[in-house]
Amino acid sequence: MECFYVVTVLWIFSVCLHEFGHAWVAFRGGDFTVRDKGYLTFNPLKYAHPLYSFGLPMLFLVLGGIGLPGGAVYINDNLLRSKAWRTWVSLAGPAANLALVVLIGLAFKSGLVEQDPKNLLSVSLAFLVQLEISSVLLCLLPVPPLDGFRAIAPWLPEHISEKALEWSNVGLFVVFLALWYVEPLNQLFWNIVFLGSDLMGLDPRLGWIGYREFRFWDRI
After folding, report:
1. pLDDT for 81
2. Which of the residues 2, 19, 162, 183 is marked catalytic?
3. What is the tens place of the pLDDT at every residue in 91-130?
4. How far apart are CA 161 and CA 52, in angstroms?
5. How far apart are CA 188 and CA 174, in angstroms?
6. Other beta carbons less than 10 A from residue 191's beta carbon
7. What is the distance between the alpha carbons of residues 147 and 144, in angstroms, rounded to a whole number?
8. Is pLDDT above 70 for 70?
9. Which domain holds residue 13?
C-alpha cells in the first residue's frame, strides 16, 4: 500500500506541474488572468475538476496503469498574442511531464536512486516514469480535448475546431476503448512506453513491480 501512496502523491504533483506549464506559457503569451485564478501555483485545488481531475485519471490508472493528467486550467485564448502562442500553451503541459521523466531518469542514471526491485522508492519512481511517458503519448494524440488536438486547433477553421471540441467526452471514451480492446494499438502504445523507459536506462521490470505494488487491492 505504501507504493500506492507514494505514486499517488507524486502523480498529483505531476498534474500540478503539467497545468503549471500550461499556465506559465499562457501568462508569458498574454493571458494575465491565469495569475488571478491562482494557476501559477502548485496548489492542486486550483486545477481541480470532478471528472477530469479525479474520475478519468483514476479510472485510466487503476484499470490500465495509464497516466492521464487530470487538471483543468481555463486559458483565455483571446488574450494570447497569436495562434503560435495558443499552440505553445497546449504543448507546454506535456513538455513539463517530459521534463519530469528526464529528471527522474537522471536520478537513476547518476545513482542517486538505485535500481533495486526491493526498494520502495525505486519501484515507485520507475512506475511513475512509465505513467508519465504514457501521459505524454496520450496528451499528444490529436483527439479533442487532448493537448495534441488543442495544439493544432488554432490552425483549423474555427467551426471545425469548435465542433470537434463539442465531442470531447466521446473522444476520450474512444481513445480508452481503442487502447483497451484493440490489441495492436495496445501493444504499440506500451512498446513506445517501454522504449522511452529503456532510453532513460531503466529496467522495465522495475516499472512492472511498481505497478503490481501500486495495485495493493489485488493482494487483499
Report:
1. 95
2. 19
3. 999 999 999 999 999 999 998 999 999 999 999 999 999 9
4. 20
5. 17
6. 10
7. 8
8. no
9. 2-219
